[in-house]
Write a structure and sequence with these properties.
homotetramer, about 350 residues, alpha/beta, 14 strands
């Protein structure tokens, strides 16, 4: 099978290449980077050297790509994929877009949070690429909108409760999320320099982060009614990992074992969701470099709240690893093909 | 003035010595460490070398200390100070205890969360050493209970709102706190080794952390009624710093400028509390090595919640720096004597 | 094929399990830890959860292991393997010892640097498990002494030059090496706590590190004469990675291209050694989680010295990954079976 | 006394402001940043908020500065000071230049390593601002060239040996140096982003780093003859700190105690150089935020080499702290005024 990567010069591109390097029967037929066209791939990313395919690839301009891949990953910034998707689809390729361009079902909502959408006619067709929720639709999709990292972390943590109508939705859900720096991408910004991040911790976009509508959309679909969410992202001095601490009120008493049973049942056929033993607080290092989402549950008798802790690797499960899981579903392969590695810990 | 430090072999001891090194007219007359008695101080802590006083000090056993200091810092683990306090007070010394032994007003509560209290008769006399709330009482105290790090971060963030009865107390307050590793002390534990912490992030003691009753006690005093708190500590891969993200519902509409004005007014005479400009999210690096508590406020219209962000240096403002501020109050010195340094950033 | 791990509770044990998890046709039939016997493996190492084999394993006492594995990894501290090796070999197992017990050919040298050797009769038989130098012997070995991490980094960097007699051996070779903290193992020590390592850097065992005789032994074999080495290890605030900067005088002029050609030729059939392009300084992140050794060469005209920079992942190539490479050789498998992953970067 | 800072928007500017905040009788009368002119200083650097002087300052354009300061710090990039110095000196100010512009005595050497020098007539007058070597000259200087960070680390480590002619200069001195990321300044560069530095280590400018001629100049002055140096800088994943490991051959046998005595004697009146006890390997954390240079000495009998380990805080002792020490000398103040703080450790 041939795949191509448009926008291969960022960290999601690099992570795709890392994962695909070990996926059987996979040929990466092109990698593009408008800015770095002509550069040998392994000169651009020296960690990829020694891989027979990659040693031969060069960055290309994103032009004349028709018929060169069965499935194309779009690993570009927001706003690029919506300009390219129509013509790529017409050329016969199937697309996995890692940006936000096709995640929101409503063009108006997109226009409000981002910019004027250039391909709103594709929003209805695009499938939200969270395998645990949309496995069948992904398998048949021409256009998969790969979920955001924070949304992946939060939706997986709340899906079982919301679908079973167990959450008291009269109050806002509260999600306090902390992300590693790869979440900000490979671009240059003062706030991502080593000296600003090391030995530091801060919240950012404290109100109104652009992942909010995506999360709310999916949580509301699950609940069958509008959900209100208070979401606060923070920047961790680590490369990889998101940990979300979620505060939820249930609308009925549930024992810990019943709570765990709900999740074990909901994710019974999902290879990537690990329901942690009672009392174990998930750690980001447990999922580093993997597609796992680890979940832990903590009832607090003094307040009546449940605390749900969810961890993923933001750039693997929250981006490129999930994209490969979608590739697997789209091509009828085992869902974890190329994704069976355990965490690099420590 | 002569001061002594009992339990000088931990990080709070080291931080006390760092701060006192530049405090005018201060003689550190003894440092004790039962386990390391006899060791030259600057061999034990090489970073202190070159300071004339410290070059001469040796760790001593904590014995025969009467009359050797006007004020004694107890920088020991929980459970030690309550055994030593009575006799030290009788010898005429005034005490600043950095442990939890004298923070809780109720012996029963202490017994429940820690162990059987050995000096419950002193609980009524001890003064909670948060200068912004108890300045007058600290000045006269014989026994000051230096606040915990998480409590300092949270009480300062909530005091103005609670005292003005602006908080909807029908719901639990939610405090999502993240701390650097010095908060765990200098003892050996697997969970504090470099390889377990670096490139990792986790929550710990997700329910029932022992700082909870201390925080609830002071918040309830401020509110004039019982307060319910959901508190979740996390471990950051940094040495120093606590950032707390607090989610609060008010019982009436308040504009951002009015909200800030409340805090500016409440802390008008406090040199260490910095109310940050609108929209600026406090960062732990801004307070590294200082006694500052930086506060930022973020109303969220979609949920009706306020997010309050509070940062301190857990080992300076949250322990040893605050202890020196208390020393200053107890001895009639300017409250910031020896504490005027700005953050070491980056 | 069945393998077992004695001493599976350390970081080399964890890394072995991470690598073996994806090696085809491999059954880990037992894991032992005297101290933690009885503990479910995935409770001990939660990052391993979700792997069908590992979910069923428990730590065992290291007893009655005969006939339970074809090849046994000894991932214990120095001094353990030499007590176990004879009886394990008699039971028919082949051994890969990750400790220093069988690396030195001379019992006297071992006795000098470590302690009285308990199985000196096995030293002649044991094979030094560096595939690039001893591929044939490893294939037939009953007992493989897996190289130390620093030695791996240095021997690979110098082997081609020494074997071709290009080095001026009248002066000491100088190797300035820097290692991540996993090199110190998983035991508890003050010097490995987060707060002592983070934002810090130091040399340790500045003179007389115990890897010195192992390095000197192999360099001298390569040179055909005694080699003098000045070796200085340093502790990096990272989990994984060794970078060695080596200062060498050649005994004749060599151009850069000729220098590179010598290495390219020497390692022509070795999948793990990457000779970097001229001017590229190898980085530890390029090899994280892999078996690669990256080499870069820099002639300095002003001094006449060559600087050779060598990087490996100390716990993968420098320990467990190399052990699996040896397993591959011993069982006639492709040398990189299970080891084809690229670096997890960033 | 009034001081001004030209180029206050970088990390050396921030560090100057941190140090000067606590220096008695010091008024910072202006701070300039061409690019950020108009910005309130504490908005630009929020860690400085709360300081009465700084709360009132704004970044200015570097114009019309005559008569506004007695001493002006130039904390700009290389190439700026040489354009400004003449007119500033004419206006009566005395200058401390933290860039490389006035460190080299030879305009030709400068032209070779940097660019065409614009004020070569000032090179003879400028004084190299290393207090331990040029105390008297600094006191009288109009123009002080503040030393580079690597040079500070190396010159202090070698000065006593070279002045006493104890070094075998027939071989190159070898200096393997490792620096924190603040050494690269506050500008944006891919190589300084968090994700490229965290969990990584590398050498850079392996041959021909521009600090080399400055180091060689001063070492040669000390030796009274040309010195050959092999210098290799590396990038540490820490904010602050340089550790240099130096390999030296002596031209005669010296005992360890004699070696230490030479240094103790040479630096007998220098408050910032700490000769460490035998066997103690200096750590960068011991000097964080201070003006100390810690030195340790290790003879290696097997090779005949001495290893000298030198640590400084690159941005304090290696830049802004040293600049304040020079300010002290130039104004007849105690050399450590404002610089008596001990390391912030951990």
């Amino acid at each position: 099978m041939k795949v191509g990567i448009i926008g291969a010069s960022g960290y999601t591109g690099l992570e795709l290449l890392r994962i695909l390097a070990n996926r059987p029967h996979t040929e990466v037929s092109f990698v593009t980077s408008r800015q770095d066209a002509g550069a040998p791939l392994t000169k651009f990313f020296p960690s990829l050297a020694g891989h027979p395919q990659y040693d031969r690839l060069k960055m290309e301009k994103p032009e004349d790509l028709a018929d060169r891949a069965d499935i194309i990953f779009l690993a570009t910034q927001h706003g690029v994929a919506m300009n390219l998707a129509s013509s790529l689809l017409e050329s016969g390729a199937r697309l996995i877009d890692l940006s936000a361009d096709f995640r929101l079902k409503s063009a108006e909502v997109f226009n409000h949070w981002y910019e004027e959408h250039k391909a709103p006619h594709l929003l209805a067709e695009s499938v939200y690429g969270l395998p645990e929720l949309y496995r069948q639709q992904i398998a048949r999709a021409r256009l998969v909108a790969n979920p955001g990292c924070y949304p992946t972390s939060l939706i997986l943590a709340l899906a079982p409760l919301l679908r079973l109508n167990l959450v008291d939705l009269s109050r806002p859900l509260i999600a306090d999320s902390k992300s590693g720096v790869t979440g900000a991408g490979r671009g240059l910004a003062r706030s991502n320099t080593f000296c600003e991040v090391q030995e530091n911790f801060k919240a950012y976009k404290v109100v109104g982060h652009r992942h909010t509508p995506e999360i709310v959309q999916e949580l509301s679909f699950l609940a069958g009614q509008p959900v209100t969410l208070s979401f606060t992202p923070h920047l961790l001095p680590i490369n990889r990992g998101i940990l979300s601490t979620i505060y939820v009120s249930l609308n009925q008493p549930v024992s810990v074992s019943a709570f765990r049973a709900i999740y074990l049942d909901f994710y019974a056929n999902d290879p990537y969701v690990r329901i942690r033993p009672e009392g174990y607080a998930p750690e980001t290092a447990d999922v580093r470099g993997t597609n796992f989402c680890d979940l832990g549950f903590f009832p607090e008798s003094s307040t009546g709240l449940w605390k749900i802790i969810s961890v993923i690797d933001n750039i693997c499960r929250g981006a490129s690893g999930q994209a490969v899981a979608n590739l697997n579903l789209m091509t009828g392969c085992p869902e974890d093909l190329g994704l069976t590695g355990l965490a690099l810990r420590p």
